[in-house]
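pinging the channel bc i need a second pair of eyes. not urgent but kinda urgent?? the chain im working w is below, pasted from the shared doc
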Amino acid sequence: MSENIWSQPQVIEWTQILLNNFERLLGYQLIAPSENQQQQAKELFQANFVVVSHGTEADPILNYGNQVALDLWAMSWQKLTTTPSRLTAEAVNREERKSMLDQAKTQGYINNYSGVRIASNGQRFYINQAIIWNLEDFSGKKCGQAATFSNWQFLD
């Protein structure tokens, strides 16, 4: 378990960006509301579904993954937050992944996305009914994209 990553100030702030944009775009909350931002960061980090995000670099780098995401992709926080997000998909699936991200960028979000991903240890898995949404910081500047899903199965 990644110890108290959720309590770091930058993670608490990023959690608010994730949650605010999800609710703004999809019209409902990803987790129960709370006035305590640190508690929300802890709840999202310890949720029983995946939440992962990347920034706006030319080759976007992952900048958040909750514990389920870290476990699923078999990465530490340090490894995840230095990994280009394209590497979460095998080379043969990257064009389809890019097309989906471009669609979300244009529409604000997409839901019901499905696709194959690959963990750092080579384990492949199929995600189903994923939601991908755009992220804006508190001043309205685009700052990345995020995904959440709770439905996946490991592949041979």
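so The first strand starts at residue 50 and ends at 54. and Strands lie at 50-54, 62-65, 109-118, 124-136, 142-149, 151-154. — does that match what u expected or am i reading it wrong
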